[in-house]
Amino acid sequence: MSQTYDQIYQRFFNAPPPEHVKYGESKTDILREARGFIEGFDLTMQTQVGCPGGCLFCYVPSGRMLTPESLRGGQWGFEVRPKREVVKKFETHLREGQLADKTIYWSGVTDPYATRPAETRAIWDALNNAPAHLRPRRIAIQTRYRPDRDAETISDYVRATASSDGGPAVVVSYSIGSDREDLIRAWEKATPSYQQRMTAIQTLRESGIWVVPTLSPFGLWSDLEGTLRQFKGWQIPYITCLFFKKATDSANTPSPFLAYLEHEYPMLLDPQWQHEQLARLQSVYGDHVLLSKAGFASLTAPHRALEKMLS
Ligand code: SF4
Question: Which of 10, 134, 231, 309 is most buried, with most CB under 10 Å away?
Answer without folding.
Answer: 231
